[in-house]
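Each record in this resource describes a single protein on a pair of labelled lines. The shape at a given residue is found from the number at the same position. The record below illustrates this layout:

***
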Amino acid sequence: MIERYRELGFDALLAITSGLALAAYMLGVLLDPLPAVVAGFILVGVGIMTLVPRQARVPAAALGFVAVGLAGIVIPRAVDSFIETPATNELMLALIGGGLVLLLTFTLLRLTTFQTQNGNPT
């Protein structure tokens, strides 16, 4: 598989799994958001085994699990618990915080896991 498609697939998987956990918590889709979080972690594990090169699985696992945990669990709970905002702003703040976490994660994944070795410096 082409390296660029692997990276895009893993990034999309992280965004989908953190969005699943965020939606389960913020929108109250499930009574308990724990099943969505467990499903997200399982999907990230499967994505690591299939999309990430063998030599780079440890940093991808660390970044992936932490990103889904922060963007899908910690940030929505922090916004809901600690920040006094009107109800319409809570989801927006959680989305912005989760988006920033995912953006940082995508950058770190690009620099560590999916770094191309065939580039010629000029």
